[in-house]
Structure prediction request, 471 residues.
Amino acid sequence: MPEPHPTRRTLRLGVCGPVGTGKSSLIALLCRELSAELEIAVVTNDIYTDEDARFLRAAGVLDPARIEAVETGACPHTAIRDDITANLIAVEDLEERFAPLDLVLIESGGDNLTATFSPALVDAQVFVLDVAGGGDVARKGGPGIERADLLVVNKTDLAPYVSVDHEQMVADASLARDGRVVIGLSRSDRASVNRLVTWVRGQLHRQRTGTLVPADPGPMARHSHSHSHDHGDDRHLTEHHDHLPLGTTS
Amino acid sequence: MASAELLLMLLADARLPVAGHTQSAGLEPALRLGLAPDEVEQYVATRLSTIARVEAATAVVARHHLRAGLSTSVVEAAWAARTPSPAMRRTSRAQGRALLRLARTLWPDDAAVATVSGVPRASRAVALGAVAAAGDLPARELARLVGYDDVQTVASAALKLLPLDPSDVAAWVLRALPAIDVMSADLAHLALAEDIPASGAPQIEAWAEAHARTTRRLFSA
Ligand SMILES: Nc1nc2c(ncn2[C@@H]2O[C@H](COP(=O)(O)OP(=O)(O)OP(=O)(O)O)[C@@H](O)[C@H]2O)c(=O)[nH]1
Ligand SMILES: [Mg+2]
Prediction:
């Protein structure tokens, strides 16, 4: 683990998920909802451009100086998982320049379902899917879908247009996640936005009271036996976050 | 204490977590701004006789200063004077910071690492001097490390940026090795900041400046 921050009050929250599912929009939404009560900064991991950083700066929800873009050399997964140096430096810079920060949001770049954040970089992570990606995605699973601290099924307002039953999608996801939190979200659905904001406040509270232990979704697929019986295994995966879940099969 | 050979392998390994994947050693802007794809091998050689040479010499002299208990500020200043591009100095300092972050975990009690960590904005070359002092890496191996890392940084970035056969790129690296040996033999004995060669590459520096201003880039530098 990198240098420990035993007294760090800032919550480092990762946001990952496939391209175009609404990660930047979710970050902009959180800034809009929370910037009156919280000191916030953002790190983006763009692949080709500083598009995400520019989108957020243009959204006008945060002082542009609080948005930092990290280049990943076409290795977006490496930058959040096996060599988190560039991201950590960006986070630490922001935390130092704008101390005391309450919340640093880190948007991953990249394009697939297997990327998750190292628990050495973030305290908690959100995985974002959208209904337009199809109703099956949540059921198919993957580490982020199954074990990120929060799964967001985004753009529920679009569900009727893409023939997806978004409530079923949320139910499938909840099953795949053994009860971990799933939020069906649309920026035009006030109640869903409130649920998201409440969840973030909850994480912040846990961070401040020292009860938030980063849990690693890990890179591995879930065990093939029925998920309704492997509760114990999953607990094991999330609690021993600094080890890969190798050899934990019962 | 492990052998110098093994330490060198650890430090030269692309898997070392010092954000090496974010670097192209200037290749990305070079290709965008005029270097032809078939000139990349020549680009590697040019860097070895210019920018990498300054960096290797700086690292060697910094190592010497740290072992002798001398201040590295004159070494840092000599490197900065030989690196006129502000963008390149910023990149090097970001890399220095990444390296020192790792070095504090690898050698938590080392005086050289602590000293250079206490200097604001140490360059990568000076940070490497501290790493070599901490790990007892001989000067010649340190210069080899700088040369080798420079070549591999270009090579691995080339694979991302150009349609190349990875085996051909490995062959470039192999062909560059003798030049790295010659360079490290030349520089290993250096002890004084004033003896660091002033062998810049103005075109590469201009490209680095242009890269720092673009909004479309894969690599940080
Ligand atoms: N209908 C609808 N569209 C949304 C919602 N949230 C985001 N979008 C749209 O989805 C598109 C992609 O959103 P982004 O926030 O850029 O997605 P992203 O995941 O950051 O994309 P990348 O960074 O390119 O991977 C944009 O056109 C958004 O306006 C939503 O709740 N409803
Ligand atoms: Mg985005």
